[in-house]
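Running co-folding for zinc ion.
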Amino acid sequence: MEVIKSFYIKNFSFFETWMIWATVLVLFLVIVVILFIFKKEQEDFKRFTTFNRYGLIWKWKYDREQIASLWCYCPDCGSRLICDDEHSRSGVLGEKSAFFICNACGENEKGKVAGGDRNHVLRIVKHEIYKLIKSNQYKEELI
Ligand SMILES: [Zn+2]
């Protein structure tokens, strides 16, 4: 309180009690605005909800900071793709693959990711999304 009082006396040679409350209010509003801007900047990555990998369009949402409902869509018609990873349990590493098929485009294969089943693909795509967010490179992916 003394700091505020001496500030006004020094700068305006004038002081009344209400000025303390006005100062507190202004400081409070400034802090709220700063926190708001900071929070908004921190959550900017939440604008990043789609990108293109393996020739497919990937879309997802956020549940707080976590990626949720990640799946891929047809690059030609935008339909949700079907995954065929029946042979991904093969004992031979090179033979494991997940195929992504679009029913709306005549059951055509739209993409193939080698190395495992759909869970494997979702894991590596998720990993890539988090990597882009962490390095701020996601901004280059925003449309
Ligand atoms: Zn399609």
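Result summary
Residues 22 and 71 are 52 Å apart (CA to CA).
Residues 2-42 form one domain.
Job closed.
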